[in-house]
Design goal:
Blueprint: H1 2-7, E1 13-14, E2 17-18, H2 64-76
Antiparallel strand pairs: 1-2
């Protein structure tokens, strides 16, 4: 989700309304766009949710766009201020 938001997803708004009506216009990453990942499960204290679960997915998406923008700036010397990041 974070990589898609940073690099591909672009929601078009016209006259205050969403103009992106289908996934043909709203690009989301596929398995071919994402690098290999390794999942590591660690034990944590009991969480407040059902089965002692704790939400984690949404929180980890917050810094992704900033990290990618900073990496692009380090690589090419241009500060990125708008998303998605494109050539």
């Amino acid at each position: 989700m974070g990589i898609g938001y940073a690099l591909m997803e672009h929601l078009i708004i016209e006259d205050g309304k969403v103009a992106t009506t289908h996934f043909g216009d709203y690009k989301i990453p596929t398995i071919q766009d994402i690098p290999p990942m390794k999942t590591v499960v660690t034990e944590t204290p009991k969480g407040p949710g059902p089965y002692n679960s704790m939400a984690i997915g949404e929180t980890s998406n917050i810094p992704v766009a900033a990290a990618i923008a900073n990496a692009v700036e380090d690589a090419v010397g241009v500060r990125i201020k708008d998303l998605p990041i494109t050539a």
